[in-house]
Amino acid sequence: MGVGPIKPSPAASDMALDDQTVREHADAYVQALLAGDIELASEQLSDELRSNLGQLVAMLPMPLTDASVESLERTGSGFRTVLYLQGETDATRLEARWKDRDDRPVIVEVSHLTEDAAGTTTAPEDDAASEEPAADPT
After folding, report:
1. Helix, strand, coil share of the chain (percent; to 5)
2. What is the pLDDT of residues 6-17, one digit of tens each?
3. What are the angstrom distances between the C-alpha of 52 and each of 65, 86, 102, 118, 136?
4. Peptide bond into 124 cis (omega under 30)
5. 108, 78 in Cβ contact below 8 A?
6. Residue 69 in contact with residue 83, Cβ under 8 Å?
7. Helix H or strand E segment including 24
8. Which residues contact 100 (CB under 8 A, 6 or more apart)?
9. Domains (range + CATH), the chain
10. pLDDT tens per residue across span 49-96
């Protein structure tokens, strides 16, 4: 007696965005950047960010000599990663926000992280690439 393919429930499809999956995509993103393969890296971006790729590339200290995912944390509507990118002459830390799009994690917002005099890390809104309006708190 044959059984047809099992279809995931809506709740199971929400699990497409889990820690391990996002970590794998974030690692693939930084490795593509490190290799200088912007086209491959852009596969991790939302359609909206891909359409403004120049703004995002301008944030990178190219060519990169080192790149890593410093941290990953779950947020209310997705995930937040902090990426460390070292160029030949300078380094930067970027915050990338990931959300589920078509059952896979994609980057929907990227911003520079800066440290204030107290050592607190913040992401300035005026130096960000995003697919969402600035008023959206997610």
Report:
1. 30, 35, 35
2. 444 344 444 568
3. 24, 22, 20, 33, 19
4. no
5. yes
6. yes
7. helix 19-34
8. 14, 16, 17, 78, 106
9. 17-130 (3.10.450.50)
10. 999 999 999 999 999 999 999 999 999 999 999 999 999 999 999 999
Q: Are 84 and 93 in contact (CB under 8 A)?
A: yes
Given its phi and psi angles, is residue 65 left (phi above 0), alpha (psi -120 to 50 degrees) or beta?
alpha
Please tell me the predicted confidence (pLDDT) of residue 119. 54
pLDDT of residue 3 exceeding 80: no
Using CA atoms, how far residue 49 sits from 7, 117, 132, in Å, is 31, 31, 10
Structure tokens at 60: 């990178």
Q: Alpha-carbon distance 116 to 111, whole Å?
A: 16
Nearest to 115 by CA among 95, 135, 131, 134: 95
- Cα-flanking dihedrals φ and ψ of residue 29, to 5°? -65, -50
Report the number of secondary-structure helices (H) and strands (E) in the chain.
Answer: 5, 7
Position 125 pLDDT exceeds 70 = no
Average pLDDT, the chain: 83
